[in-house]
């Protein structure tokens, strides 16, 4: 019943999609045909020359013709690639909004990004209101976190402060900051997605559904793997905490022990009660999700932006080394410029999340490495600890590398410009090349640092240096005693 | 009585102002009108096409026409925006000299920047003379500081030297250095302000009083907030010192105790006497003001320079993506170049102050962080200490970010050049883009470092590293004992 | 018997080589001749002018003519340079494949790079198969290393972990990683060499055999010196171990003592047996070779790439400051671009090896420097230790400098472009100059860092910083006791 | 008697000098005259317009005419500036060879730079031979230093090694390295000076003797101040050593005590004898001179190179903002290129000295700062120590800043190119601007680092970091005991 109008809508969009690029590419194709005929002539003329370099050129022209033919086949008859795709792949038209829908839906289950219409087919369905249930949930969670944070601060300030002890404060402050930023982002999200959609529509489109599906596939994989590992880490954390609670048994009730250990900031000022314990547990689960989600979110946006650059680069690759008219380069330059401005807009919107994610990861890795110097109280601890540490380092590395891929892809365009033949080198290509050379397109942490591959090395170097300094600082202190909770 | 000639002068200036930009923009407007007619034609011609990209262009042209109309309205009939402005805003013509007048006047109350005519309407009224009362006050204060510094050095060298103990020497040396630099700057100030004024007059002018008033508003806010916080910090420092003096009571007289604590360098070699105590207190108040003022001054100059770049950028934004003649770009390029050269001149004039401000803040943050490791002797101390530390870090961050905004605004111009349409891309736009790309326009600390957002990260990194190293160095030493004065 | 067909093949290739550049340079030479006549006229006209700068120009033209004549002589009559070369040099045609043949053959003796046809004259003879004996040997060694690594991890995890103790794990992991990477590289090797060969054939060829032989000579020297020093280091290590074994004599049998010391990870869980000891020794020798070979390999590839840039630069030097047609510059630009893309391909293929080599060297230098703080138990130890340390530092420096030479040579081209006369400055020269300026052509460690001369300074700085931090960390601990084996 | 031929030679050179620039500038002047007439017309035409920007332009043209007139006066009638100059200034024709003559002569007194003809008027008189007395002296000193170094190594290796103890080895190794490098430089010096002279002759010449004398004056001042301070430091060192020797009196003879203290490496293996003591003292004096001279030498070369860039910039300043023909810019570009290549040649020749100078200063500052943590045994020590430390830091800063001035001056040229009017902006100006932008012209330490102002900050940061790390390392150790000699 409900499927029919949906399918109808999809069909209409599909038709529109099939028409629009055809229309858009008519003039371009015309040029190409003229070009191809010219090339064919050229080919027959030079067919008898035998110099190595000439042969290379010949291969290029042959290659070009075959590429052109392949493309024509794609254009006129897309039935073949369609038939061999799964139904799921068929449904994707390759927009970021579509790919990111389920990811945002999952986030909304955990009181983040309260925007309606994330699974709708078109970003125009997106809207944000302060009165939605989702928004209220989100505000409720923020209030709850605020209370939790206050309790934590009260408990931590009671004892001596150190690099290690302020971990729960840092953790909960980051969660709070990210939640508020995400709420703010949700307000801007409909507009951002519309902007993204407009730019996407203007880009050279992929021919096959497989290529269209690629970005969505990567995004889903990132989300899935990230959440799986996060879930595994949380389970191990619980097992380890249960184990630990049985050692430092304050009371006779093991469940009570467990909750008093994992939510010590609550029961530091209040007596134990099951509702409070449940609230603490819920808060814990939500916090852990958000803590992982902020990294996943930065990765997903990076994947989306990098995919748009790749889409442009794939088109440039098709015509690499060929004689293209200035209008081709002008069009590509404007598309490149659009993606750059999209990058800038997204960066402005999420750079606070990026910064929190990065500094948070850096701090946690340092604290974990510091703890690694101590003897583990049990095997369960050791397993949890090393899994958690490796997961943390892996996640940080993944965020860095995915974010750096935006910059890498944006620089990649330069390679195709380097191969423009002498005769086709015009004012437009020059301007294009100069703009790519002089601009730094990358996600950033509040513009204080840009996420490039060089940053990964600096971060690694910083961690090692901190570690060496920390080693000396906390040499003899045992961090695994019953008084201190390490389960935040 | 006195208001009438003032108002008359203002009216004349207002008339002049209203005429001069009109004259200056006649030829430019002419071009625009021609452009607009052409666009209107273009619009009617393309009104039936429906491609997405064409529509975007259409919106641009519609947008352009509405912008042009809005502008024409502004030009021919400014009565509306004028009537809705407050009297204060009406008075501003948007020059830096005018905006900075009261800030400099305040500084002169504290024996700095002894130049006459700072509140005059035109920078030509500025003049410096060695024989003015203000200059003499300034020289007197420098002499007084010199004596105080000598006494401090004598006292400090008497005991063992350490990173923490030399704080009073560093503090007073910086005050002295800044005072002498400010005196030197005062000599050059009239010339600098004339240069600034000339460049300002040549820039594209704002239409509304509100826009003109913006820079002055920011400058006044920076000054006000900076001075308020500085005053609060000084009060807290006094309360904390009174509290401290009552604990380490050397004599029975609490006032005497207080002065002997806060000016220990004086009473280390001299007996207690009320005039000396008052001199010490005065010296203390003045020093504290200057210590804060040097940061505020760097911020204010930064705000001024960034506002000039923004003025140019706002004009470029108006015509973003439109077909402009080469003469437009040539004019903008020369204006950009002028602001750059102004930046260079201001940087040469104040870079010593910038450097002192930065290194001083860096050193004080390190010392304060070092002290934070010790237990606080009382609650008053703790409140003062944390307020002081947060104020210090906030001030340093504010200086860094305001100073970095000059660089950010200067790079922002590039965005508008990236949107120049293909047909309007000419030798002038290219030269403009290349110059922005290759120049580094920013305030600097003696050219050793440039104040950009990247620097903030380095500074933060350095502070953390120093802190970690310092932690180990002073681990067990108690810095809060009665023998040592921490009230410099 | 076998020499004849080889010689015949060589002769044919030689002929082909002699013909192809002639053909390729006919049009170029034609231009040059026209140029030369024009210059001669110019010379007679300006012969009487006496200004200093004119004279300089005159010298240039004279120089040009003499260079042209020298070149003509080279072209028409190459018998003279041929006759004065040794037979060995005669055999080289200057390709990288030929130069690197014996180096790869040596590597294959130690179970690396299992690709067939490395000593063949043409890279088309290269092929890789999983079923070759060499591949099987390689896989066998990888399996053997894996077992050894497991034993090592088991032994190390048994005791407390420290920066120093994990050395055997790091060592064996690196060996394993490099072996697997080399196996993977072997699969891509035939294709890479074909690409390299194609680009080489297109470059301006050297005239004399001596110049052709130069690259091969450098490569062989690097290999020889590297292996000699590595052999000497291994011998010293054995002498030192024998000496050490006699001090910490566990059993009466000195040979058994030696093996139990050098392969303590095997005999930690198994009883002593001669076959196991021999396996351990073999594993040891192979590991040591591979540990040295990875550095040598990076050096050799760097020498090869730098030589290709030099080949281009040598051609540009010949025509430095002369009036060359745009076609000349276009050709050179494409050749430059080809070498750049070759660099990129080689970098992609070997960057993991580069990274392992660098981080490994960095870690080992730090560990060795750390050990240098302890007293040496004997003179044999001291000699071995300091030889080993100096060898390590020298090797790291050599890798850095050879790798940096690729970047240096790629930038060198810019100098010749700076000397292009005003009249010959065209769109092509400009594009060439801009491309060199904006590209960073260098080997890299997984793109995280680029191997330039600046890196050497950073690495040196890092080592010194680490050393100073390490000094404090392990101050009192004696690392030369019998319980710990330092012979990995 | 001897003065007459000298004066005759000078007169002839003077005539030649006066003629050659006139000849060289005839065509340029012609253009200027045409320009001037045109400007005069332009001026009369625009004399009535009153816009602010027009007025600015008018001022420019008036300024230009006055500049041109001033220049004409200079050209036709130089008697006035000549008459008011001292005789000494009259003698200079502004070449680097002439300016550096006495500096090299002084160096030769201390067995360095053994090249003949340094005080000759023309660099063609320079020559180097292995058989000169100077060369023999130099070789003798190298041999003597080698012996001294061996003795030092023997003594140091006898005790435990530390950062502080190896100071004498570092000191003597640096001296030896610099001596050998200077000997090698002496061989290349005649050629370098001829190259320098050729480039100098081609540059736009100064009109007045005062301007010509400026570079020589700076060089002499640097040499004088450097040597004076070095002499003062050596005297203080001796006084402090005498004072110290009287405390740790080994024997009764105070002179013997002094020599046994300052040359402890000699008397560690040999008995005391006066000739040995004198040799040690001589060696000491020479070493101290060379240790200071290497810094002074780097400064002097920097002053020379920066002066050449300034000479070019002064010419560009003269015609700043005016309409100049492309030939003018082409000429300037080639001159700029020549100075760049001169920089490169000089850098290649002296970069080892630069590197030794820098690393040596860095090490010595660290060692001195480390010693500053200990209590001084006497006032003489304290005075010497602080003078020495401040001198060391000042010298390092001076070397850095003078060397950085080469880079600063080379970038300064860009400012004049930014002011080229729209109509005069041509291919040549563009090429000039791009070349300056993309090249890094600076002295370097073996190309590992470039001497720019940014380096100073890094060096300062490194010193502070090292200091903080060193503080912890040597906290309790007393470095001022009688067993250790600190007088190397």
TrEMBL record, chains A, B, C, D:
GO terms for cellular component: plasma membrane. Keywords: Cell membrane, Membrane, Receptor, Transducer, Transmembrane, Transmembrane helix. InterPro entries: Gustatory_rcpt. GO terms for biological process: signal transduction. GO terms for molecular function: sweet taste receptor activity. It comes from the Eukaryota. It is a multi-pass membrane protein. Signal peptide: none annotated. It holds the Pfam family Trehalose_recp. It is found in: Cell membrane. The chain crosses the membrane at residues 131-157, 169-186, 219-242, 289-309, 349-370, 382-404, 455-473. This is Gustatory receptor. Its main location: membrane. It comes from Drosophila rubida. Belongs to the insect chemoreceptor superfamily. Gustatory receptor (GR) family. Gr5a subfamily.
